[in-house]
Specification:
By secondary structure, this protein is an alpha+beta fold. It has 6 helices and 8 strands, in the order H-H-E-E-E-H-E-E-E-E-E-H-H-H. A hairpin with a 2-residue loop joins strand 7 and strand 8.
């Protein structure tokens, strides 16, 4: 099977320039590199796509019924309108949500606000305990759709570095409005969430602001020591020291975002701390 030729013919078919629709029914495509491939409206029913790289692929309106998607990389793939009936090993929303911390009111998630690609609606009040909402795109095949977007803490750290990170709450009764895309890279969307507090902010120069102040590494040290002394507890002191060390690392790494990226490692940070 010449997959490259099939994709070329399919592209012509989609454009109405002859060619033929990609018929990959039952095809063995395990571990295949199909990143950014245009397979819109293709027949992939019963195909074995286990561990295939489908990053950024266009699978809109494709027939993926009973396809095996075990371990397939679907990040940023467009699955809007795809037939996924009987498809195996797709991402479970329930399992994905389990990674977030919980309290008696709901789950704790994170959101980037500020310098991003998306304008904040005028009706949203960006302040502690404010509730924001938006009509949510219900299609799990759509990576980026309307709604209130949120993500894991790591996703927020890795994207829109100059925007603020907010800790947020999705109440238990709002969970029915959560949509987790099949190809999520750490981001999802919901109908409603509550802003709790900023956990990381930046000034106009992109420097960290912690607790309302531009924090240096020395200031983070002092804050950690004060917390430990106030607690008067050895176990908490160790916890506070570890947490502060992570804060120091993030501050240190931020100072290098515009410089030498090769230094952004924990090992380099340890040498920096010791030196």
């Amino acid at each position: 099977m010449n997959i490259e030729q099939i994709l070329k013919d399919h592209k012509k078919w989609l454009a109405g320039n002859g060619g033929s629709r990609a018929n990959l029914h039952g095809a063995k495509l395990g571990c295949a590199d199909l990143s950014y491939a245009d397979l819109s409206r293709a027949d992939l029913s019963r195909a074995n796509l286990s561990y295939a790289n489908l990053h950024g692929a266009n699978l809109s309106r494709a027939n993926l019924s009973r396809a095996n998607l075990r371990g397939a990389k679907l990040s940023r793939a467009n699955l809007s309108g795809a037939d996924l009936s009987g498809a195996k090993n797709l991402l479970s929303s329930t399992k994905w949500i389990k990674q977030f911390k919980k309290n008696r009111d709901g789950i704790i998630v994170y959101k980037k606000i500020g310098d991003t690609n998306y304008q904040i609606p005028e009706r949203w009040e960006i302040k502690n305990n404010s509730i924001i909402s938006e009509v949510v795109n219900p299609d799990r095949g759509t990576i980026c759709g309307c709604g209130v977007n949120f993500g894991t803490l790591q996703w927020c750290k890795d994207n829109y570095e100059k925007a603020d990170i907010w800790e947020c709450l999705i109440r238990w009764e709002w969970l029915s409005g959560v949509i987790v895309p099949f190809g999520t890279d750490g981001k999802a969307r919901c109908e409603k969430l509550q802003l709790l507090k900023k956990v990381q902010a930046h000034d106009s120069k992109g420097r960290f602001i912690l607790n309302g102040k531009n924090r240096t590494i020395a200031a983070a040290d002092a804050a950690a020591n004060a917390d430990a002394v106030a607690a008067g507890d050895a176990a908490y002191a160790a916890y506070a020291a570890d947490a502060a060390d992570d804060v120091r690392y993030q501050i240190w790494k931020t100072t290098l975002w515009y410089g030498d990226f090769s230094k952004n490692s924990k090992e380099e940070f340890k040498k920096y701390r010791q030196g």
